[in-house]
Amino acid sequence: MCGACPGGTLVSPTTAELNRTGRKRLVLAELRHRLAPGCTLTLVGDGWTLRRRTGRQEVFADIEPLLTALRTHAAADWTVPEEPRAVVAQILASPHHPAG
Q1: Which DSSP symbol is given to 73?
Q2: Which among 7, 43, 58, 77 has the fewest CB atoms less than 10 Å away?
């Protein structure tokens, strides 16, 4: 749950783990690094905003739908063969990534 949200909004286990480990900003940087030129990704709280090269903007209340969108709908905006979910999993699994 998100403690700052009224009514205790549920978040995915991935978002909960990112919050617990303090690695959301690190994930943001790594995802941004793999986006096509002209794409932007921003983070406010648990909300992620993806602006595609076309100018279309999508807002995601949790990281899980963002990762799905990057893998499927926004595939042209993702520049590497590595799956977005694998990027996040690698960061969460690595003790060498500092909290950021």
Answers
A1: T
A2: 7
Q: What is the edge-to-edge ordering of all strands in the sheet holding 57-60? A: 40-44, 47-51, 57-60
The two three-digit tokens of residue 42, written as one number: 């921003």
What is the value of pTM for the model shown? Answer: 0.83
Angle formed at CA 100 by CA 81 and CA 74, multiple of 5 degrees:
30
55-98 confidence digits (pLDDT tens): 999 999 999 999 998 987 656 888 888 999 999 999 999 876 55
Tell me how far the alpha carbon of residue 81 is from its chain's centroid: 17
Q: What is the DSSP string of 53-83?
A: TTS-EEEESSHHHHHHHHHTTTGGGB-SSS-
